[in-house]
Recover the amino acids of this structure.
């Protein structure tokens, strides 16, 4: 909503995130925990073209232009997202069924 109110944001792209680095393994483990999943994490070799050792959204432009000040942690965001999917799964199924897309896999 902030981007709609600022002329300098018109046509711009903004990275949104917590501003803190999150390891993929920690993200995967947290998702498994929050979903009470017994799934295993499948490790794969690094892709040849993938030179990044660290991943963190650069939110400096969003902070400067939009006044972004992240208030939600990764864990809280995941908890809210999972809750939304669980609460609204029947709506998602109905919507994807109309579009001819399978929506299975979310409990």
């Amino acid at each position: 909503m902030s981007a709609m109110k600022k002329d300098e944001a018109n046509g711009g792209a903004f990275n949104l995130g917590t501003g803190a680095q999150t390891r993929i393994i920690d993200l995967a483990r947290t998702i498994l925990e929050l979903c009470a999943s017994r799934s295993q994490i499948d490790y794969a070799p690094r892709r040849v073209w993938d030179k990044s050792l660290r991943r963190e959204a650069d939110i400096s432009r969003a902070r400067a232009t939009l006044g972004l000040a992240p208030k939600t942690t990764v864990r809280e965001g995941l908890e809210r997202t999972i809750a939304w999917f669980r609460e609204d799964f029947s709506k998602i199924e109905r919507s994807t069924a109309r579009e001819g897309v399978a929506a299975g896999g979310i409990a």
Remarks:
- Residues 2-71 form one domain.
- The helical segments are 24-34, 60-66, 74-99.
- DSSP finds three helices and no strands in the chain.
- The two ends are 31 Å apart (CA to CA).
